[in-house]
Amino acid sequence: MKTFASRYLIVMVLVASLVVFGAAGFNYFVDPYGIWHFGSAGDWIKARPRLQDFERLHKAHEVEHLKAEGYLLGNSRVVIGLDPRHPSLPKNTYNLALSACTVYEMLRYLQHACVFQQPKLVVVGTDREMFDAATPYETSFSENRLAVDPQDRPRAGWQISDAPVTLFSASSLVDSIRTLLYKGGPIRYPNGCRDLELEKPLTLAKNVLIESDRWKKRASLYAPVLADGSNPQFDAFREFLRFCKSRHIQLVIYVNPVHSVLLDVLRAREKEYDDWLRRMVITADEEYPEAQVWDFAAYNQITSEPLPAWTMVDSGMKYYWEISHYRQNVGNMILDRIFGRPDAPQNFGWRINRENVSNDLARLKREALTKRN
Amino acid sequence: MLFNSYEFIFGFLPICLAGFFLWASFGWTKTASLWLSGASLVFYCWWNPDPHQLWSPKYLLLILASVVFNYLLGVAISHSREQENHRRTKFVLVLGVTVNLVTLAYFKYGGFLTTNLNLVFGTHFSLGKIALPLAISFFTFTQIAYLVDSFQGLTKAYNFRWYLLFVTFFPHLIAGPIVLYRKLMPQFARPETWRFNVNNLAAGLTLFGFGLFKKAVIADSVSPIADGVYQNIARSGFPGLVPAWFGALAYTTQLYFDFSGYSDMAIGLGRMFNVQFPINFNSPYKSANISDFWQRWHITLSQFLRDHLYIPLGGNRRGEARRYFNVMVTMLLGGLWHGAGWTFVIWGGLHGLYLVIHQLWVKATKSAQWTMNALVVGAGRILTFFAVVVGWVFFRSPSFGDAATMLKGMVGQSGFDLPLQLHRLIGSRFALPSNWFAPLPFQAFELVALAVALIVMFVVPNTNQLFRLTQPTKENDPTPPPLWKPNDRWAVACGIVIGVSILHLSRITEFLYFQF
B505 in contact with A at a CB cutoff of 8 Å? Predict the structure, then answer.
């Protein structure tokens, strides 16, 4: 019996080890999150469908290998809408924006990126949701995977902080298998940008009314300040501006042009919206007067594009995917306008500062009234 | 420290086992028992409600103070009994039980009581922020049982080292099974307990692996469904019929696999130290009626409540009405034991009501043969299962309002909420209204995990059947021998189970916000 039990234990431990280390080897080989093999080493995988849910993980590692001279920052609107290959941007620009990004996360990822390469230019696409006082960061955000701590001090071992969960976990194993079985378009996040045209099968249809209701709920939960009157996101914004200024990084900030249906929802509590924009502009002026601030939120032909009842990737809309995300042609217009390219639309995007922000808000109000009437 | 953590499996457990059997192999059983108690306290201290501190000495002091206090009272009770001083014996018992319950009440129910008193009297009394010390409910009940056993002359403990080990022995310390001194400590008096036994290590590790699989693989895979539905309610959502039932069933399976998995791990760990714990779960969802359910669910708690609450209240010895009253009181307090909140009280009360109804039913159909009909028994199983599912809605809901929203969803008062993904498939084909569809508050593929969990729960033999954990009660016990054998086939199967469970210990955090 004793011999049987000893043999049993040895076989059991060997099999368990084989399962665990076999899975780790397989995960390393397939690399579903694109964090172990970069450049040509990872090219044998044509698409990594799980990247869309693991942006924070993937980009934290990829940015180390790119040595970018320009960064695009912001939330999913920037991830999807801004093309880092735009001719006005530095040649090696990387889209470091993160879905549902907060200002704090944006600051931390820029600090992290600057460890590897000091950029010349940073373009930030922002909106009020990034300044929600009650949301410090998204659940998939992890400080441990960043090369510097919040005080900008180097952090040892950050590269391997994700090793246990990306190699020795069943969820990674499932993602590796899903990656190998994936038959859709080539999801590669070229330069950090998510090209939705290439990944049509991943995108679900969305009902405009349901979406609008969902945004109403989200907007109603927005907290301009915490109970003590503070807003940690504005503190992070101030820190972000100081960081860029101290490193002589050219900074451009713009307000995202969401669809007018969503803009109505976001501006439902008008005073809150106005206070946010005013405070953002004044803070930028105080901390980094050389930074450019643009407002692309508007009610115009682009943002009022008619919406079908159900929107899909191939819904046929020209400027938007749905009410929240604009297409890259709108992103190009934004960059054309900011960088003064000759073919830029003149009636789309206004440079704002603390002196003219009230006029800008009055303009928005006028446009909203005109649209309603 | 959690059983399902890397630090426990690859650090604490091997070191603790090696140290224990090393000291014991030299014949130093005192050192070995102190080693095991010390290791158990390290295991306990690993947990701390304040994430900014590595450990919190005040909770260690609390458990040590509780152990010393109850040990001294136990000794006093035993001495008083020997001197046949019944008044003093009773006084010490009442003192002990009262102090234990007051301590538990302060830490566990202080906030709940003050909130309710403030509501009733319009006052603003506050006890400040009270953190609930880990395992206080379990070590309080374990020690009350010890005091009562001492009072009844069933237990004597004159050795503090043994008593410390009894209370702190880490496999049962955090979440049971609730063990009795007279059942556990005689096992440490046997010489073979102190000798390394490779058979018990093999069986214990296998049991631990099965428990780990239940917790890390099954329970954690279905929990996102329940969490998604309840989070939706917390955000003022109204789940329709489909997500509400998925959420309720998911929580029912999650709770079973989570807790029974934990119990299996505890029993397996005990076995590694050559110690046998009582079983705590015996396929409760296969119960034929609600009384049967309570003999299969959290068995050691049911036994504790029966022996230390229901029977002292009079049990079934004081007439029918009093019997139903005793059942209700036992179940209401049993509900409250699970957590400081009215939803737990309602859950306990609901089960009390179920038990009373069942007893009335048994009385009414006492001599009816048709109740033994397979169809009637099957219907009883289904009814019991759904009654339990409804009970869990109160158990899981943070407030009565949330429970009501969930129940409304389950009876279809908040619409259907068929998965939005089905709209393109069947919505247009059958001209179904678009408001019948809504996005599921969880991933559709997680339903596969739920289906697998339900199949495992109802079809696969339970741990007791696999390992024959309960001892035969009669000489010619017809219970079949254990299915598990230490052979190569089982070794490979268990190796896979353990390997897969280890792969489930960590899960990479995914972007949760339902995006584009």
Answer: yes
Cis geometry, peptide bond prior to residue B177 (ω within 30 degrees of 0): yes
Average pLDDT over chain B reads 86
At A83-122, the pLDDT tens digits run: 999 999 998 899 999 988 999 999 999 999 999 988 999 9
Domain boundaries, chain A: 56-156+188-372
Residues of chain B found within 8 Å of residue A205, distances taken between Cβ atoms: 420, 423-424
Chain A to chain B, count of Cβ pairs less than 8 Å apart? 144
Number of residues that this document lists for chain A: 373
Task: Give the Cα separation of B416 and B410 in Å (integer).
Answer: 9
Q: Does the pLDDT value for residue A201 go beyond 60?
A: no
Least confident of A112-116, B126-130, B193-197: B126-130
Of A249 and B437, the one with more pLDDT: A249
Question: Hey, which residues of B are catalytic here?
Answer: 338
**Residue A125 phi, psi (nearest 5):** -100, 120
| Dist. CA B406–CA B275, nearest whole Å | 43
Name beta bridge partners: A207. A310
Partners of A253 in the β-ladder: A124, A293
Tokens for A90, please give them. Answer: 């530095």
Q: Which residues of B touch A52 (CB under 8 A)?
A: 511, 515
How many angstroms separate the CA of residue A246 from the nearest CA in chain B? 32
CA-based nearest residue in chain A for residue B515:
A99
- The closest CB to that of A170, out of B6, B202, B500, belongs to B500
Strands A70-74 and A93-95: parallel
- Residue of B402, B463, B58 lying closest to B237 (CA atoms): B402
pTM of the full structure: 0.80
Tell me if chain A has a CB within 8 Å of the CB of B14. no
How many helices and strands in chain B, by DSSP H and E? 22, 2
Architecture of domain A56-156+188-372: 3-Layer(aba) Sandwich (3.40)
Closest chain B residue to the Cα of A164, Cα to Cα? B506
Residue percentage of chain B with pLDDT more than 70: 91
Chain B residues in contact with A321 by the CB 8 A cut-off are: 516
* Average of per-residue pLDDT across A303-320: 75
* Mean pLDDT calculated for residue range B460-464: 86
Q: Which of B237, B246, B195 is nearest to B446 (CA)?
A: B246
- CB contact (8 A) between residue A11 and residue B492: yes
Q: Is the pLDDT of residue B511 over 60?
A: no
CB contact under 8 A, A138 and B512: yes
Asked if A8 and B202 come within 8 Å (Cβ–Cβ), the reply is yes
In this predicted structure, what is the pLDDT of residue B515? 32
Chain A residues within an 8 Å CB radius of B498: 12, 16, 19
pLDDT value of position B242: 84
| Residue of chain A whose Cα is closest to the Cα of B200 | A5
